[in-house]
Amino acid sequence: MKKAVVILILLFYAIAFSSPQIGNDKTAKDSALVEQLVSIVTSILQGKDYSELRENISSEAYVIHNNTYESIFEVLENPAKRESFIEVKETIVSFVHLWMPDDQNNAYMVLETKSPDNTKRTWHSILFKFGEHKKWQILSWHKS
Predict the structure, then answer these.
(1) Ordered DSSP codes for the chain
(2) What mean pLDDT, rounded, does the chain reach?
C-alpha cells in the first residue's frame, strides 16, 4: 500500500512539473511574430503605402528580383520596378516557415504566395533583423 502511494505521489509530481506552464507558451509567441512579419511582407507585396512601413525596412536592405540586386527603396520608389515587384492585392500566403537563431535578433522567413486563381506562385526568402528602433526590419529579400 505504501509503495502504491509513493508511486502515485511521484507520478502526480512528475505530471504536474512536466506539464506546460501558462504564460510561457513559446508557440503562441512564435505565431504572433510570424503574423507580424507576414503582415509587413504582404503589405509591401499588395502595394500599400510603404512609407508607414519604412521603419520596418533597414537602410541597407536589398532585394534580388529578376536576376538583379538592388536597394529595396530603389525598387519601391521607381514606378516601373515597383510594378514588377508588387503582386495583386488578393495575394494569398500559402506557405510560411520562420527560423530564428538562439539569440533571436534575426529571423529568416521562407514564404510562398499565390494568385487567387492559383495560376501564379512566387517564393520569397526574407532575412529580418531586430533593428535599432526595437522593430523587426527587412534586411534582404529574394523573390523568385
Answers:
(1) -HHHHHHHHHHHHHHHHHSPPTT--HHHHHHHHHHHHHHHHHHHHTT--GGGGGGGEEEEEEEEETTEEEEHHHHHHSHHHHHHH---TT-EEEEEEEE--TT-SEEEEEEEEE-TTS--EEEEEEEEEE-TTSSEEEEEEEE-
(2) 83
